């Protein structure tokens, strides 16, 4: 099972140069792939294209061989969990319990299933005991883990994280890396990391895709791809 980006081209304005041009990549379940590159090379744009927030002018994105062009944002969200650079923008509820239950209730799940999934993923993200906490009183790392728990409770095939370590200190980076390793091992998710954090990527990514060509300051490995 894979997520395939096939020859997509995207520009924000008709007469502007393309941010991404004829870009292709394949993301497999069970692997963590980092997408790297300087500012302006299209990393965040690629994430928004995968999620359907933006639409390419050319090319297609396939999941399990099916073109996702006609998929709604909700349909994509059930298959691909998206964690924004600022996780607070994805939090809407007044308690941790309500936040993780929100998507499950919207999907029409029964209350017993919601309770079981909430318990399971709060435990996985080390948030047990925070059920009645006000989400906006959590630390940045805890907010991020809450959004991850909410996304994972929907049991997507893929996780897409945009600059997940940008506001985390070294301790929180380690905790996030451990969380992602647990998720990949427990669920077999494909994980896509959009990142500038080479230390984090070296430790946790199976493969790296560089946008904007080779960077002579970056050590190469056999799985690196340059676009």
TrEMBL record:
Claim: Translocase is one of the keywords in the record: yes
ABC transporter domain mapped to chain residues: 3-227
Annotated Pfam families: ABC_tran
Keywords recorded for this protein, A-Z: ATP-binding, Cell membrane, Membrane, Nucleotide-binding, Translocase, Transport
GO CC annotation: ATP-binding cassette (ABC) transporter complex
SMART domains given in the database record: AAA
Keyword GTP-binding: no
Highest taxon listed in the record's lineage: Bacteria
Signal peptide: none
MF-aspect GO terms: ATP binding; ATP hydrolysis activity; ATPase-coupled transmembrane transporter activity
Protein family per UniProt: Belongs to the ABC transporter superfamily.
Protein name: ABC transporter ATP-binding protein
Organism: Zhenpiania hominis
């Amino acid at each position: 099972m894979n997520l395939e980006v096939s020859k997509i081209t995207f520009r924000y304005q008709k007469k502007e140069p393309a941010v991404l041009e004829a870009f292709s990549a394949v993301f497999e379940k069970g692997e963590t792939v980092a997408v790297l590159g300087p500012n302006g090379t299209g990393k965040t744009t690629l994430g928004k294209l995968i999620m359907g927030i933006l639409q390419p002018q050319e090319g297609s994105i396939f999941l399990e061989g099916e073109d996702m062009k006609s998929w709604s944002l909700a349909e994509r969200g059930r298959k691909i969990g998206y964690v924004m650079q600022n996780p607070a923008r994805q939090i809407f509820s007044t308690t941790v319990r309500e936040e993780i239950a929100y998507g499950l209730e919207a999907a029409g799940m029964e209350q017993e299933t919601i309770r079981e999934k909430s318990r399971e993923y709060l435990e996985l993200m080390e948030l047990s005991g925070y059920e009645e906490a006000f989400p906006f009183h959590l630390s940045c790392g805890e907010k991020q883990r809450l959004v991850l728990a909410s996304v994972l409770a929907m049991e997507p095939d893929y996780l897409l994280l945009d600059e997940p370590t940008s506001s985390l200190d070294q301790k929180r980076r380690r905790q996030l890396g451990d969380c992602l390793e647990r998720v990949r091992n427990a669920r077999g998710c494909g994980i896509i990391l959009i990142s500038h954090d080479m230390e984090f990527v070296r430790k946790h990514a199976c493969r790296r895709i560089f946008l904007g060509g080779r960077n002579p300051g970056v050590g190469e490995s056999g799985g690196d791809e340059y676009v």
